[in-house]
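Ticket opened by: R.M.
Priority: normal
Category: complex prediction / small molecule

The reporter submitted a protein together with 1,3-dihydroxyacetonephosphate and asked that the result be attached to this ticket for the collaborator who will pick it up next week. Submitted input follows.
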Amino acid sequence: MTDTKQITAPLIARSQCLVMGNWKMNGSMSFNNQLLNDIVMGAASLATSAQLVVCVPSPYLAQACERLSGTPVQWGAQDVSVHTKGAFTGEIGAGMLTDFGCRWVLVGHSERRTLHAESDAVVAQKALAALNAGLTPVVCVGESLQERDAGLAEAVIKRQLAPVLALGAEAVMRLVVAYEPVWAIGTGRTASAQQAQDIHAVIRRLLPSSDHTPVLYGGSVKPDNAKTLFAMPDIDGGLIGGASLVATDFLAIAS
Ligand code: 13P
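Result attached by the on-call engineer:
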């Protein structure tokens, strides 16, 4: 698949640290109100120039759009359909996400790959659907514990990324990759900075440009390990689950 003619998403530079929150299926109007307020207030006095993004459940995109418009904090969704529109009950099209001011969307999170049987090919199609709507897809990849123990971590990452890389350099320079080892998600067991860097280096070598396509690390990132992880040469920021639901932790990770 090399038809990238319709891509309208912007190029994404690696120069700015990117700290993205993935709220997963958490939140409520009142909880979000407090959390978004606290993040916006804290973002104003952040010592770093990290770009903050929150990926909220889709019903709350309007709330995020209203609260975050005009602030430095951006927002995104957690999934997108491969289709533009039509008889796809329950699906959400990329154009619908841009209607609510989204700039970002996660695709291929391990929870979607596992619980919804999303294949590598479908994840690449979702990335392309996002790019064509002007959204930046964050393509999540990562091996399971069983795969790591079998020495297959690199092979799994390469297999997961292959159809995404086949979209072509113009597409790949407009997306973000997030390396999230499944065994480190929600377990409190973070990959060591060196373990993460080793895989990030593998991913970086597959990418078409050293200036574009940030590669984020995700999996039990907390205020006390973020600095060490983000200091690694091929780690360009983080995709944060649990800690992104606590404003002080999310802000501390970005500071
Ligand atoms: P935790 O930070 O809770 O481990 O979740 C990581 C994640 O899955 C982010 O997408």
